[in-house]
Amino acid sequence: MKRKSIVVLIAVGCMVLLPGCGAKGKEKAQEQTQQPAWLEAFYNASYEYRISNITGEEEDEQVMPLIEGKRTPSRQYEKVIEPGGPQVWSEAYSYVDGEKVTKLVKSVQGYWANQESERFYPYGYGENLIFKKSGTVDYNNIACDVYTTDYIVDMAEKVNEGAGEEVIKEPLTAEVSQEYYVDPAANQVLCLITDVTDINSKQQTAVFMLSQGISAEEAEKQYGNTEKTREKMEILSYDDSITIDIPSVEAIN
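Predicted structure:
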C-alpha cells in the first residue's frame, strides 16, 4: 500500500494542473459552445507572473507569495520567492515536446535534476466553463470585470490514471471555483484566483483510502474539513517577446 500512496500523491499533484472533466463538465458543454476570447488568449500568451497562497476566510485571510516566473506557450521558468520555506527546490525550467514535459529543477542544495512528466495546463484548461459576471472592481488602478465559474474534477479517475490501475473504485470528485479579473480595455486576464480547498481535502481523502484501505466516507471522517485555501495568480506583464533559455548544466536524470 505504501507504493500506491506515493502514486496518489504524484497523480493528484499533476491533477491540479490537468483538470478532469466530470459529469458536471459534460452538462456544461451542452449549455455553452464558445469560450471568451480573453480566456483563449490567456492560455496561449507569454507573460510574467506571481503565484501566492491565500489561506483563511476573507476577514482573516493570509497571503503568502510563493513563486514568480515567466512563460511562453512552450517554455516556462519559475523561482521560489522566499527560499528556506517548505519548498525543496529554488528554480525550475520547463519545455514541452508534444504532450511530454522536461523540467530542469535546481534543488535548495544547489544541484540540478531532470524530471519528465506529462504536459501541464492552467486551471480550467479543457473545461467547458460557464462564466458569470459578478461585478467590476479596482485592481491595480484598473477597473476590471470579475467573472466567476466552477467545474468538477474526477479525482478517482485521475488517481487511477496515475496508478495505471483502478485503485479507487468509489466516486471521488472535487469542485473547483474560480474568479477571473479581466481588463475590458485590453481584453486580458490580470489575475486568477482558484479555490483549491475541496481539491486539497479530496487529495488527503485519497491518500487515507489507499494507505489505510478504508472507504471514502471513513477517510473524510478521519481527515475532517481542510482550511479554506485559494491560489492567486497575478499577471505582472504580458510580453510576446519573452524568451526563456534553458541553461546548459550537469543534471541528474
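Summary: The chain has six helices and twelve strands.
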